[in-house]
Amino acid sequence: MRRIRLIGGVLHLRYLSLLLISTLLPAVFVGACLYYLMFTILAEDLGIPEVIAKHLFPVMNKINIILVAGFIPMVIILIMWGFALSSRLAGPIARVEREVAQIVKGEYSKRIKVRKKDDLKSIADGINILLDKIQELQKRRG
């Protein structure tokens, strides 16, 4: 079982920041649009009577409380989700990079191991087949 942890590379942080930006920016935009809508409705230049404005201010305060109370857990959940997704993407890439670096150093008996569900399984299998063929050629010549 893979533990979710920081892979220790720029790639993981890049995926994590991309995921967070792509989820937080739309949320901030929608929130800003809602606030703009509320303030334009409450604007005095629209001629809202005092009676209506008096009833809208408590509603606006409740909306503010809900937004503030919901924003913090939402950010925490998005960070956890982004961390899990970026680990799923960056983990196999980091593993393949480490193992290819060992192979390049001359360890041709080394094989790239990935989990069955990893997205890079086909690439790792192709490299492993290539290594098998290199070893066969070396045996024939040796």
TrEMBL record:
GO terms for cellular component: membrane. Keywords: Membrane, Transmembrane, Transmembrane helix. The chain crosses the membrane at residues 12-43, 63-85. One of its GO terms (biological process) is signal transduction. The keyword Glycoprotein does not apply. SMART domains: HAMP. Residues 87-139 form the HAMP domain. This is HAMP domain-containing protein.
